């Protein structure tokens, strides 16, 4: 099955827009095969067996949970189809000159161009290193800063028992066939100089006579110098139809087919534990993480850098699985973010639908562990009903930001908020939680842990305190008639309440936010913002260290004239005119699309991101929530007994505020 034009594929009667002209086949997921000239666009396989108890794969499954969206299709009779290679990763990277075009990045580009000269000095710096032809260093330099494409995929005809049943391809754009042929011949001469006899080249490609599960070749294809393992045909990555604005050429393209990546993972597992691999595949199908595709395109012009992230078909999946929010964002939702925010993210969500989807996918595994209804189990353990007491009291929007208003713009100024659908019911739940914490604090901490209830401006606040102990931490929760706010400090909580009252300016009033906003807020699922000019202040030092490392690495102790000098502009020069980074995500047809506009300078964006991590280092730990390291779980279910001591109805009088 081939892509045509911009890559519109008929799949099950639905047209799905792809960004790159790549072949695609899917087999064994949710009991289906999608490929080939089937009249309905679908060929079905029998259902996989019901999952049994998981063993050591449980940590892997838990790491993949954030991607979970259950989508099960009924099984039908299987029809065999020819096996085809399945690409799960491809990337295009433009030449460094196209990526670093902004005037603020020109000194950085000049330093990168000195890498080639530095590499050619290495034989003189490394004892006993044999002389190498210039083509080797040209190849290394091109690999670093040149235009190139990378392809990785699963081989349909891989040798039986191969530990790596995949192909890997690297194509470096030399510009013309003669240059690519010269590179090919230079590498042949280099290998021959080491006494290795190479077979004659066929169709411009030379096989490498090394033991490997797949054939490895290098050589010339058109104007490209290529190195490929597993297959020789390299499909071009289309540079059109990327979704970038007219006149903006892509500097980076990336395609990830998560389904085919899972195929590789499962094939490796099947060699050691076929039954468990089958169980794992079935669970991934139930969770719906077996059919995700990510397409990314980035490019810039004189005014902005544009980034497009598309998940084809994901919008439709959200609707069909019940995880789509009941409403999208409005400007009023962003008004909760102060005008002086250093960064912010606001989004719409369906918390109950997401939790129910995950629990549905986990159902067979939980049953294997003796857990029938986890919601009832939680209620029996804590007395709280997950939905009635907590989840159903939340609305459809959430937010997270840091600002000067709430504490100086750093880590302790971070505020999180959630829209409420039933504030009164949530207050009742909060009172029960407060009683539980106070009771446990009295019994287990001798009263050194306690919740302080107080009021400000008509809002109810609760701070976790440590009476008598100099603990530098006082997280606070605020409940208003419409929102729940969580802050690391009481001062931040008070500021968040005042911001919600509408007395102060908001993010939507900022000219730099409006100038970079790629569309209307109304109808969006998520909006994010970074004040690049402000964040450069915190990230400039780290960026300076990185630039100095590059400059020192390209300097020569033998040729003192080769020196890139100062490649990072001064702080005020770099920050002058720096544009904010603003992202907006919405569903377009059946696709989930996120568009980002940022400053056209690479150094500006690097410094602002370094400032984000530097001012709020906890944000760097967010990925660990999804890919955390866990100890292996026991292979058998371990019965557990829970006993909660009764909480006193009244708190001792000497503990009252």
Q: Briefly note the structural class of the backbone.
A: alpha+beta
Percentage of β-strand residues: 15-25%
Instruction: Catalogue the unreliable spans.
Output: 1-82, 620-657
Q: Separation of termini?
A: 73 Å
Largest beta-sheet details: 19 strands, antiparallel
Describe the global form.
globular
Helix content: 25-40%
Number of strands: 24
The gyration radius over C-alpha positions equals 29 Å
Average residue-wise pLDDT: 79
Number of helices: 20
Write the layout of secondary structure elements.
Elements: E1 8-11, E2 14-17, E3 26-29, E4 32-34, E5 43-44, H1 58-63, E6 86-93, H2 96-99, H3 106-112, H4 115-125, H5 134-145, E7 148-154, E8 166-173, H6 177-193, E9 205-207, E10 216-221, E11 224-229, E12 250-257, H7 258-272, H8 274-287, E13 293-300, E14 305-311, H9 314-321, H10 331-334, E15 341-348, H11 351-368, H12 374-382, H13 386-390, E16 394-403, E17 415-420, H14 423-444, E18 450-456, E19 459-465, E20 476-479, E21 483-487, H15 490-500, H16 511-516, E22 526-530, H17 532-554, H18 571-575, E23 581-588, E24 591-598, H19 602-615, H20 622-627
Antiparallel strand pairs: 1-2, 3-4, 4-5, 6-7, 6-12, 7-8, 8-11, 9-10, 10-11, 12-13, 13-14, 14-24, 15-16, 15-22, 16-17, 17-21, 18-19, 19-20, 20-21, 22-23, 23-24
Characterise this structure.
The chain has about 650 residues and is an alpha+beta fold. It has 20 helices and 24 strands. It has a 19-stranded antiparallel β-sheet, with helices on both faces. A hairpin with an 8-residue loop joins strand 9 and strand 10. The longest helix has 23 residues, at about 530-555. It is globular and about 80 Å long. It starts with 7 loop residues before the first strand and ends in a 30-residue tail after the last helix. The relative contact order is 0.12.
């Amino acid at each position: 099955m081939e892509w045509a034009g911009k890559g519109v594929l008929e799949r099950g009667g639905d047209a799905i827009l792809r960004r790159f002209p790549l072949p695609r086949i899917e087999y064994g997921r949710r009991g289906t095969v999608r490929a080939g000239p089937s009249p309905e666009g679908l060929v079905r396989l029998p259902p996989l067996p019901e999952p049994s108890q998981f063993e050591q794969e449980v940590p892997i499954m838990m790491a993949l949970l954030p991607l979970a969206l259950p989508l099960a299709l009924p099984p039908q009779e299987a029809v065999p189809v020819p096996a085809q290679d399945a690409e799960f990763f491809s990337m295009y990277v433009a030449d460094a000159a196209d990526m670093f075009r902004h005037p603020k990045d020109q000194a950085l580009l000049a330093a990168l161009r000195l890498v080639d000269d530095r590499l050619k000095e290495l034989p003189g710096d490394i004892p006993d290193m044999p002389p190498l032809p210039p083509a080797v260093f040209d190849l290394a330099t091109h690999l670093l800063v040149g235009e190139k494409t990378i392809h990785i995929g699963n081989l349909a005809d891989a040798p039986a028992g191969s530990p790596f049943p995949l192909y890997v391809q690297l194509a470096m754009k030399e510009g013309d066939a003669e240059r690519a042929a010269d590179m090919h011949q230079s590498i042949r001469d280099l290998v021959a100089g080491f006494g290795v006899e190479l077979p004659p080249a066929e169709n411009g490609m030379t096989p490498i006579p090394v033991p490997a599960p797949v054939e490895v070749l290098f050589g010339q294809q058109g104007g490209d110098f290529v190195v490929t393992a597993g297959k020789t045909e390299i499909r071009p990555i289309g540079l059109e139809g990327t979704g970038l604005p007219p006149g903006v050429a892509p500097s980076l393209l990336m395609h990830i087919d998560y389904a085919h990546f899972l195929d590789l993972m499962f094939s490796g597992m099947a060699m050691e534990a076929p039954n468990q691999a089958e169980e794992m595949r079935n669970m991934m199908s139930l969770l719906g993480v077996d059919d995700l595709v990510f397409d990314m395109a980035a490019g810039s012009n004189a005014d902005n850098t544009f980034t497009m992230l598309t998940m084809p078909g994901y919008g439709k999946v959200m609707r069909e699985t019940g995880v789509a929010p009941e409403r999208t964002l409005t400007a009023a939702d962003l008004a909760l973010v102060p005008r002086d925010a250093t960064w912010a993210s606001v989004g719409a969500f369906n918390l109950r639908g997401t939790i129910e989807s995950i629990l549905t996918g986990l159902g067979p595994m939980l049953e294997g562990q003796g857990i029938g209804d986890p919601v009832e189990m939680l209620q029996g353990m804590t007395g709280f009903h997950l939905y009635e007491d907590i989840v159903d009291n939340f609305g459809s929007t959430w937010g997270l930001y840091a600002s000067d208003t709430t504490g100086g713009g750093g880590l302790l100024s971070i505020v999180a908020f959630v829209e409420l659908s039933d504030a009164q019911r949530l207050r009742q739940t909060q009172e029960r939680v407060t009683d539980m914490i106070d009771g446990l604090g009295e019994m287990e901490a001798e009263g050194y842990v306690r919740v302080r209830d107080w009021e400000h401006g008509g809002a109810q606040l609760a701070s976790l305190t440590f009476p008598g102990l100099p603990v530098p931490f006082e997280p606070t929760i605020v409940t208003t008639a419409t929102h729940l706010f969580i802050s690391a400090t009481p001062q931040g909580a008070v500021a968040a309440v005042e911001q919600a009252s509408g007395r102060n300016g908001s993010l939507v009033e900022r000219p730099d936010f409006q100038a970079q906003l790629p569309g209307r807020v109304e109808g969006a699922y998520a909006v994010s913002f970074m004040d690049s000019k402000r964040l450069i202040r915190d990230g400039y030092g780290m960026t300076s260290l990185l630039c100095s490392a590059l400059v020192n690495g390209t300097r020569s102790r033998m040729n003192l004239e080769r020196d890139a000098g100062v490649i990072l502009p001064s702080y005020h020069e770099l920050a002058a005119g720096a544009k904010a980074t603003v992202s907006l995500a919405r569903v377009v047809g059946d696709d989930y699309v996120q568009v980002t506009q940022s400053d056209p300078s690479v150094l500006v964006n690097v410094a602002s991101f370094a400032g984000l991590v530097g001012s709020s280092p906890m944000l760097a730990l967010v990925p660990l929530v999804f890919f955390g390291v866990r100890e292996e779980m026991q292979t058998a279910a371990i019965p557990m007994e829970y006993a909660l001591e009764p909480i006193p109805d009244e708190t001792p009088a000497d503990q009252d505020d």
